[in-house]
């Protein structure tokens, strides 16, 4: 009889839905990731140097933010099973039971449709198409396929996080250019060393969840080598906006200094291969990489606010 009562209780709970609070739904949007998306999209928007109306710019940024939140909700819906196995993610709303999987799915789909519709109707169709593709890429290509099937999940899947400045550029201009692709490439090349540094000191988490992150598949030494390799490619890529005439001397100097620091941290990870010093080096690179990306895109925004002349005009 008690089993029947338990079944009825479970069914009733499912019918009523989870007991998620506003904070739980906010968590579902991955607000820290969303803040990076908004910031890089803003940089792409202002770097385009267009005459977009401030209200349309605000609408575009809000739509991009909501689209990023939709991606986060869909990711948490699908990944609830592996999130429950990792210490870093076990307290997320879906594995914790505060929000039911169906609620997370419906929430994510509603936000995705609304954000794309608003961006397409009020701004332009190119930006809306890019946003729709970004949500699809993150939720389906990365979350449902790459993340669980290949150690290159972060390399290929990193494209999803690299699209926001391109979407911002498209919102301002209605087009995709080499300059916006350069902004995309910066984040694309930044993503592997950033996440692999995290994976090195969270290796046990990913192994328990069965996620084929590079350290679990190829080993820690190969991961360190790949971090250094991608870092050596990343730093020259950050100079592309200057070479293409998008950014000025301030950006170029800031990028050079930050690039040198990034390479120092990456080399530190490469040379320290065991024990707590190695773990600290990985944590330092992971923490610095976040500051690094924010600072690079902050330099782009600051130059536009200050009216700094593009680098190509200075040397021309």
How would you concisely characterize the structure shown here?
The chain has 2 domains: 157 residues, UbiA prenyltransferase (Tetracycline Repressor, domain 2, Orthogonal Bundle); 140 residues. 81% of the residues lie in helices and 0% in strands.
List keywords for this structure.
about 325 residues, mainly alpha, Tetracycline Repressor, domain 2, 18 helices, about 80% helix, flat, disordered N terminus
What does this structure look like?
The chain is 81% helix and 0% strand. It folds into 2 domains: 20-176, Orthogonal Bundle (Tetracycline Repressor, domain 2), CATH 1.10.357.140; 177-316. It has helices at residues 2-16, 22-28, 31-47, 54-78, 80-83, 93-96, 101-122, 125-149, 153-162, 164-173, 178-201, 203-209, 214-218, 220-237, 240-243, 249-271, 275-306, 311-315. It is built from 18 helices and no strands. Helix 14 (220-237) packs antiparallel against helix 16. The chain is mostly helical. Mean pLDDT is 89; it is low at 1-16.
Shape: flat
CATH hierarchy: architecture of the largest domain: Orthogonal Bundle
| Rg over CA atoms | 21 Å
Mean pLDDT: 89
What fraction of residues sit in β-strands?
A: under 5%
Question: What is the fourth-level CATH superfamily of the largest domain?
Answer: UbiA prenyltransferase
How large is the count of helical segments? 18
Structural class by sheet pairing and helices: mainly alpha
Low-confidence stretches at least 5 residues in length (pLDDT < 50)? 1-16
SSE pattern: HHHHHHHHHHHHHHHHHH
The largest pleated sheet is described as: none
Distance between the termini: 85 Å
Whole-number tally of structural domains: 2
Helix content: over 70%
CATH topology of the largest domain: Tetracycline Repressor, domain 2
Strand elements, count: 0
Q: What is the name of the CATH class of the largest domain?
A: Mainly Alpha
């Amino acid at each position: 009889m008690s089993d029947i009562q338990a079944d009825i209780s479970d069914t009733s709970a499912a019918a009523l839905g989870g007991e998620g609070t506003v904070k739980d739904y906010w968590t579902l949007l991955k607000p820290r990731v969303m803040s990076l998306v908004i910031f890089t999209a803003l940089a792409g928007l202002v770097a385009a140097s267009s005459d977009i109306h401030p209200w349309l710019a605000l609408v575009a940024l809000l739509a991009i933010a909501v689209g990023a939140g939709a991606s986060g909700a869909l990711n948490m819906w699908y990944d609830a099973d592996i999130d429950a196995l990792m210490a870093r993610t076990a307290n997320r709303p879906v594995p914790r039971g505060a929000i039911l999987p169906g609620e997370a799915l419906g929430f994510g789909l509603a936000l995705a449709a609304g954000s794309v519709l608003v961006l397409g109707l009020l701004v332009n169709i190119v930006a809306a198409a890019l946003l729709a593709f970004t949500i699809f890429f993150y939720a389906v290509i990365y979350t449902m396929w790459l993340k669980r099937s290949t150690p290159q999940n972060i390399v290929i899947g990193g494209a999803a996080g690299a699209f926001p400045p391109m979407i911002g550029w498209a919102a301002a201009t209605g087009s995709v250019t080499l300059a916006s692709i350069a902004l995309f490439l910066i984040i694309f090349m930044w993503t592997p060393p950033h996440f692999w540094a995290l994976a090195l000191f969270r290796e046990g988490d990913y192994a328990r969840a069965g996620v084929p992150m590079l350290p679990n598949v190829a080993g820690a030494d190969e991961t360190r080598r790949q971090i250094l390799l991608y870092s050596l490619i990343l730093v020259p890529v950050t100079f592309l906006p200057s070479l293409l005439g998008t950014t000025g001397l301030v950006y170029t100097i800031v990028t050079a200094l930050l690039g040198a620091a990034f390479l120092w941290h990456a080399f530190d990870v490469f040379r320290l291969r065991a024990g707590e010093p190695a773990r600290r080096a990985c944590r330092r690179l992971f923490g610095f990489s976040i500051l690094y990306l924010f600072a690079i895109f902050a330099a782009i925004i600051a130059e536009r606010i200050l009216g700094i002349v593009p680098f190509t005009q200075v040397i021309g």
